[in-house]
Amino acid sequence: MKPNKGQKRKPNHKAFIQENFSDQQWESFDSDEPMPQGKSDEMHRFILGHISSKQQRRLKLIRVTKYLSAASIILIIGFALYIRPKNTKHQELPVTAKNELQAKVTTSSWKEVANPGTDIIKYRLPDSSFVTIYPASTIRFKREFDQKLRNVYLLGKARFKVKRDPMRPFSVFSGTLKTTALGTSFTINTRGKHISVKLHTGKIVVADTLTQQTLAYISSIGTTLLYDPSLRFSRIVKPATVIPPATALLKREGSLIIMKNIPLTKVLQLLNEAYGIKVNSNLTDVNKITFTGSVDTGKEQPEDVLKLICLINDMTLTRTSEQEFLIQKNR
């Protein structure tokens, strides 16, 4: 088979085959017919050039793909680095601003009053209750009490005079103790080993904030609750019974001396003056003794009066001279 002769063009596999080999020539092609040497070389070069062209395009495609992949990775990393600081900043700023706002609200809504000096100070609370703050003591409370509660936190010693408000209990937190009242006065001291709560007027309830148990209901004025935080132990100390001093009476009716709750030292002085005698005694023995009775200096002898006084008070009378006596407490 002889290929068609024509004008030489740039090798193209489709055009080359169609121009040089028609369909009839392919059908009548005999493999025994030798191909001209020029055409054979030309086809060989064409095939090699075609293969080389495809390989070069494939290499270019691979290089472009690699470049695009590398560029994509660089773009993604750059975008992530660009976005990350913005997101971090966007997340952190609101949190910081919120914390600062909360800190400002917390600081502004609470009030702390401290007494670093050596004199006591008085302070008026938001509900018009008064507190006496002792040296080295501090109270803390909300600038505006809640609608249902009036809470004060104490460190040290303070006396509270609470304005009565049945709808809003007044509570003082001191360590693990909570002292609650509606309208009364009391003193709390957290110094030292024990916490003490002393009632002055009204009524109070003292509870343990850890166990939520009521420790005492105090209504007797002067009663003190002592609480040991380390042992979680409390006890009530009632006020000492105060005996009012007896009414003294000294009355004279002629030679009669009427005495009621008169100190014995005064009685002996009266006898010395009335009888013209001298009665010696140890002041320690007679200092706390009183005498109630009457003496008629016109009818009774001084020795008989002194014997009666010694008998009543468990004492001994000794006559040291005609007008001198000694009385002593029996040991």
UniProtKB/TrEMBL annotation:
<dbReference type="GO" id="GO:0016989">
    <property type="term" value="F:sigma factor antagonist activity"/>
</dbReference>
<dbReference type="Pfam" id="PF16344">
    <property type="entry name" value="FecR_C"/>
</dbReference>
<feature type="domain" description="FecR protein">
    <location>
        <begin position="120"/>
        <end position="204"/>
    </location>
</feature>
<keyword id="KW-1133">Transmembrane helix</keyword>
<feature type="transmembrane region" description="Helical">
    <location>
        <begin position="64"/>
        <end position="83"/>
    </location>
</feature>
<dbReference type="Pfam" id="PF04773">
    <property type="entry name" value="FecR"/>
</dbReference>
<dbReference type="InterPro" id="IPR006860">
    <property type="entry name" value="FecR"/>
</dbReference>
<dbReference type="InterPro" id="IPR032508">
    <property type="entry name" value="FecR_C"/>
</dbReference>
<keyword id="KW-0472">Membrane</keyword>
<dbReference type="InterPro" id="IPR012373">
    <property type="entry name" value="Ferrdict_sens_TM"/>
</dbReference>
<keyword id="KW-0812">Transmembrane</keyword>
<feature type="domain" description="Protein FecR C-terminal">
    <location>
        <begin position="257"/>
        <end position="318"/>
    </location>
</feature>
<protein>
    <submittedName>
        <fullName>Uncharacterized protein</fullName>
    </submittedName>
</protein>
